[in-house]
Amino acid sequence: MSSLLGQVILHPKVSQAMAVLATTIGRDKTYRLIQYVARILAWSFARQGAVDLAKRFDALKAALGSGRKLFRVFKPVENLQSALNIAERPFVKISGAEQVAQLTQFLRQVAYAVFLGTDSLVWLQSVKVLRLDKDKAAKVAKTSMQAWIIGLTLSLISSSASLVNLRAQSRRFALRADIARKDEKGPDAAADEAERRKQGRALLAQRQLIMSQLITDAFDFWIPSNFLGYSNLNEGVVGFLGATTSYMALQKCWRKAGAAAK
User: Fold this and answer.
1) pTM greater than 0.85
2) Which of 198, 110, 100 is nearest to 157 (CA)?
3) pLDDT digits 0-9 by tens, 123-144
4) One GO CC term of this entry (predicted)?
5) How many other C-beta atoms are found inside a 10 Å radius of the C-beta of residue 197?
6) Which of 73, 98, 151, 201 is the most exposed place for a label (fewest CB within 10 A)?
């Protein structure tokens, strides 16, 4: 029995899960996934008339949402640092699509800094550190959601521009590769072909990364949209969208932890 228990505890997948949970982002995305699953369950039980169960999962959702805000108290500083780093990159000597991507990435980081900064004020209000009246608290919460939806919109524009730029790069790469294959002769041909395949895989990986970000932002967009009254999705749909993007983010953390363990 103890041997079996030891094998379970020391299993590589358990170690990988612990590595994910050892990081702030890993814990945040795990709690976010549970938060949105709880949102789905609360909505589902409420529809079935199981009021007590619905209240329990609603309380779990609220507790996890409040706890996650604590993780992000200093995150606006990181966003502002990213914005400053983007601002220092050369802007004139790049293509139109790259300029759009860079500018919107800069504005996105600023919008996220506002979103997370005001979100921290919402948390401070909820734990009674700040004493805001009902109207001011509602205004701060609304400003937070508005900044989030602006940041998501900018991120969608940036990802679309990056995709356009990557498509142009891929076409140029394919054209150069075709010309090179026709001209190549001798012992270096195999090595050159291997290098081209490596570059092709890098372009494909970059495209997958951009598409993942595009899907995540498109799904997350409806969460603040619903809060602000711009859309009227039910809690089950909003929970599903949030759970999906949480799972996608958690997958990235999982792969990163797995790669670090090798």
Assistant:
1) yes
2) 100
3) 999 888 888 888 999 999 999 9
4) peroxisomal membrane
5) 11
6) 201
